[in-house]
Amino acid sequence: MSDDKILIRGARVLGGDPRDVLVEGETISRLGTGLDADGARVVDAEGLILLPGLVDLHTHLREPGREDSETVLTGTRAAAKGGFTAVHAMANTFPVADTAGVVEQVWRLGQASGYCDVRPVGAVTVGLEGKQLAELGAMHDSAAQVRVFSDDGKCVDDAVIMRRALEYVKAFDGVVAQHAQEPRLTEGAQMNEGAVSAQLGLGGWPAVAEESIIARDVLLAAHVGSRVHICHLSTAGSVELVRWAKSKGWNVTAEVTPHHLLLTDELVRSYDPVYKVNPPLRTDADVMALREALADGTIDCVATDHAPHPHEDKDCEWAAAAMGMLGLETALSVVQETMVDTGLIDWAGVADRMSMRPARIGRLDGHGRPIAAGEPANLVLVDPAYRGTVDPAGFVSRSRNSPYAGRELPGRVTHTFLRGKATVTDGKLA
Amino acid sequence: MLRLPGANPRTPGHLISAADLTRDDAVLILDTAEEMARVADRPIKKLPTLRGRTVVNLFFEDSTRTRTSFEVAAKRLSADVINFSAKGSSVSKGESLKDTALTLEAMGADAVVIRHSASGAPYRLATSGWIDGAVVNAGDGTHEHPTQALLDAFTLRRRLVGADAGLGKDLDGVRVTIVGDVLHSRVARSNVLLLHTLGAHVTVVAPPTLVPVGVGAWPCTVSYDLDEALPETDAVMMLRVQRERMNAAFFPTEREYSRRYGLDTDRMNRMPDGALVMHPGPMNRGMEITAEVADSPRATIVEQVANGVSIRMAVLYLLLGGNEPAVSHHRPEESK
């Protein structure tokens, strides 16, 4: 028995009929039925779904600078527990990941953790200030191999800077991931602007603040012939704009977070800052439009926007609280709840939206690959029959700001394999 | 003990929003306030009802008027009053709302009257488990100011129905027009909810920039034209408009605002006979209201202040006192 050889027995590959999958070393060596264990460690996967390891395009690992909320180690452990084998670490750290030095540091910490591949995202502008392009080429050429650039948390709102960034990264097939938020329209904004904000007296965050930037940026991308990725779409109007841009044949991709697929601004009536997030929770009509768009491919992928915060930043009045919520350890369950159990997509669709497409957008080799002989053994086993109540006390993330605490959700990751090595076994970190 | 159960099951025993009050809750508060008002006419203006109870005025925003009103109300009920204001306290040194609340809890506050710049802070205080005492919202951000709405309703009932004749009655069919910066006004939000609960017809009038997106869900009519609304109103409530709003392009100039939405004598004369002019204070004379109007017999502005004490006595009494009659001399004090 050795971890060099693992036989996953009876797994429903992408939700299909049960198959045996033999992993040797870092690679899938055989698929079949009734495969001989022949000394391999056997994982009984009867009733479990086998998917390619999940890929997150949008993760805040907080290191360097805010190790009180998360580190690369704790964040990648949370990722593994959620079924991820690769995450893109956002650039809004302290210092900002706007130089080759910082992105290489994050990349090396990811290598050292061993739970999940970490691909740093580079800042578009120096210090996320939107004024001067960061050394995008140097970050691309570094050991961290940056392919995705984003000022996430802040919008690249200057149209000229955005245009230049879109053009510049063409030289090395990079992509700019835009946090679409018109800053003037969202000064003091606290929640989605609508009937609930009017009643609660919280500053409104209009949908148009997101949609106007998306409209501008898809036009810019078309004009200069670049690709653009839109982070965390949250409104029905944004969906319409992306759908229109794609219908023109423009190179636009988009992501949606799990929380925007499930939660609405009605939850803000509790004034509990665990529901405070950027972009804000929207209405039921927006949620339905986002689900439909993810199902029909208008939205390419699910990205968690995993945003850990220490307890004191959420245990306070709404206006004083930080924005963001945890996502890595619950993403797959929320996607099962909102997309699979509703019949909108099947498990092959989940593999596509949570692994293959995000890997392709991030130009990430070795992830988001088919489950076939010769492919890297980045795999996750999911028990779709499981139902359980979310208890953040059991999270491996350093933070606890989950909006799903106390909510019953389906599905559980039982095993995660990173290049043939188990990072999660029987639902526990290996 | 009487608990105000209200419409929100998460905040029983607290007064956070005007929406917490049913019609009967609100009428009970107004009737109790009438009894309290009679105490003010006596040579000795004090009741022993809340002797030994502690009321904390927790003010994170300056508000001499509201704080003093609550302080007088609590003292007339013989409660011990602690004023805890942000200035000069640990709050200004960065202590969190939570730690302040835990401190007050440790000191044994029976009620916390809170004014805070963040919408929802009183709700957080009431639902977070940080304190056990009753929470009374004395104004939170741009959310609500329920005791202001209650004192406005009390003033309306006294003037339009009568102090004695009004007992047990609501404001069925009364037409109230609220004018001004509705977007940023906690007074407007509480008044729209409470007046509707009491059967009044509410119209809000403002430039479209100062009406919130989503106002369509409010139980009121929205108009941009003051002159159209005035002949059809029994009372007009003028809201304070901060001059600084001009700098954020909510309206072009002070003069233009006054011309279109200010209440002057000409406009006042277009209201029906007996219609009232109200203002929660503090006023910008010459901006939303002219001095002549503010000082006219139709104006209830000073009365509103006096009524505020009666209403706050009633609220504290009902939240902390007993279900015995408010004014009673022969009964022993309730046991604790």
UniProtKB/TrEMBL annotation, chain A:
<feature type="binding site">
    <location>
        <position position="152"/>
    </location>
    <ligand>
        <name>Zn(2+) 1</name>
    </ligand>
</feature>
<comment type="pathway">
    <text>Pyrimidine metabolism; UMP biosynthesis via de novo pathway; (S)-dihydroorotate from bicarbonate: step 3/3.</text>
</comment>
<dbReference type="GO" id="GO:0004151">
    <property type="term" value="F:dihydroorotase activity"/>
</dbReference>
<dbReference type="GO" id="GO:0008270">
    <property type="term" value="F:zinc ion binding"/>
</dbReference>
<keyword id="KW-0479">Metal-binding</keyword>
<feature type="domain" description="Dihydroorotase catalytic">
    <location>
        <begin position="48"/>
        <end position="235"/>
    </location>
</feature>
<feature type="binding site">
    <location>
        <position position="232"/>
    </location>
    <ligand>
        <name>Zn(2+) 2</name>
    </ligand>
</feature>
<dbReference type="InterPro" id="IPR002195">
    <property type="entry name" value="Dihydroorotase_CS"/>
</dbReference>
<feature type="binding site">
    <location>
        <position position="92"/>
    </location>
    <ligand>
        <name>substrate</name>
    </ligand>
</feature>
<feature type="binding site">
    <location>
        <position position="309"/>
    </location>
    <ligand>
        <name>substrate</name>
    </ligand>
</feature>
<feature type="binding site">
    <location>
        <position position="58"/>
    </location>
    <ligand>
        <name>Zn(2+) 1</name>
    </ligand>
</feature>
<dbReference type="GO" id="GO:0006145">
    <property type="term" value="P:purine nucleobase catabolic process"/>
</dbReference>
<feature type="binding site">
    <location>
        <position position="305"/>
    </location>
    <ligand>
        <name>Zn(2+) 1</name>
    </ligand>
</feature>
<protein>
    <recommendedName>
        <fullName>Dihydroorotase</fullName>
        <ecNumber>3.5.2.3</ecNumber>
    </recommendedName>
</protein>
<keyword id="KW-0862">Zinc</keyword>
<dbReference type="InterPro" id="IPR011059">
    <property type="entry name" value="Metal-dep_hydrolase_composite"/>
</dbReference>
<feature type="binding site">
    <location>
        <position position="60"/>
    </location>
    <ligand>
        <name>Zn(2+) 1</name>
    </ligand>
</feature>
<feature type="binding site">
    <location>
        <begin position="60"/>
        <end position="62"/>
    </location>
    <ligand>
        <name>substrate</name>
    </ligand>
</feature>
<dbReference type="Pfam" id="PF12890">
    <property type="entry name" value="DHOase"/>
</dbReference>
<feature type="binding site">
    <location>
        <position position="179"/>
    </location>
    <ligand>
        <name>Zn(2+) 2</name>
    </ligand>
</feature>
<dbReference type="InterPro" id="IPR032466">
    <property type="entry name" value="Metal_Hydrolase"/>
</dbReference>
<comment type="function">
    <text>Catalyzes the reversible cyclization of carbamoyl aspartate to dihydroorotate.</text>
</comment>
Automatic annotation (TrEMBL), chain B:
<dbReference type="Pfam" id="PF00185">
    <property type="entry name" value="OTCace"/>
</dbReference>
<comment type="subunit">
    <text>Heterododecamer (2C3:3R2) of six catalytic PyrB chains organized as two trimers (C3), and six regulatory PyrI chains organized as three dimers (R2).</text>
</comment>
<dbReference type="InterPro" id="IPR006132">
    <property type="entry name" value="Asp/Orn_carbamoyltranf_P-bd"/>
</dbReference>
<feature type="binding site">
    <location>
        <position position="186"/>
    </location>
    <ligand>
        <name>L-aspartate</name>
    </ligand>
</feature>
<feature type="domain" description="Aspartate/ornithine carbamoyltransferase Asp/Orn-binding">
    <location>
        <begin position="172"/>
        <end position="319"/>
    </location>
</feature>
<protein>
    <recommendedName>
        <fullName>Aspartate carbamoyltransferase</fullName>
        <ecNumber>2.1.3.2</ecNumber>
    </recommendedName>
</protein>
<dbReference type="GO" id="GO:0004070">
    <property type="term" value="F:aspartate carbamoyltransferase activity"/>
</dbReference>
<dbReference type="InterPro" id="IPR002082">
    <property type="entry name" value="Asp_carbamoyltransf"/>
</dbReference>
<dbReference type="InterPro" id="IPR006130">
    <property type="entry name" value="Asp/Orn_carbamoylTrfase"/>
</dbReference>
<feature type="binding site">
    <location>
        <position position="281"/>
    </location>
    <ligand>
        <name>carbamoyl phosphate</name>
    </ligand>
</feature>
<feature type="domain" description="Aspartate/ornithine carbamoyltransferase carbamoyl-P binding">
    <location>
        <begin position="14"/>
        <end position="157"/>
    </location>
</feature>
<dbReference type="Pfam" id="PF02729">
    <property type="entry name" value="OTCace_N"/>
</dbReference>
<keyword id="KW-0665">Pyrimidine biosynthesis</keyword>
<comment type="function">
    <text>Catalyzes the condensation of carbamoyl phosphate and aspartate to form carbamoyl aspartate and inorganic phosphate, the committed step in the de novo pyrimidine nucleotide biosynthesis pathway.</text>
</comment>
<feature type="binding site">
    <location>
        <position position="282"/>
    </location>
    <ligand>
        <name>carbamoyl phosphate</name>
    </ligand>
</feature>
<dbReference type="GO" id="GO:0044205">
    <property type="term" value="P:'de novo' UMP biosynthetic process"/>
</dbReference>
<dbReference type="GO" id="GO:0006207">
    <property type="term" value="P:'de novo' pyrimidine nucleobase biosynthetic process"/>
</dbReference>
<comment type="pathway">
    <text>Pyrimidine metabolism; UMP biosynthesis via de novo pathway; (S)-dihydroorotate from bicarbonate: step 2/3.</text>
</comment>
<feature type="binding site">
    <location>
        <position position="148"/>
    </location>
    <ligand>
        <name>carbamoyl phosphate</name>
    </ligand>
</feature>
<feature type="binding site">
    <location>
        <position position="240"/>
    </location>
    <ligand>
        <name>L-aspartate</name>
    </ligand>
</feature>
<comment type="similarity">
    <text>Belongs to the aspartate/ornithine carbamoyltransferase superfamily. ATCase family.</text>
</comment>
<feature type="binding site">
    <location>
        <position position="93"/>
    </location>
    <ligand>
        <name>L-aspartate</name>
    </ligand>
</feature>
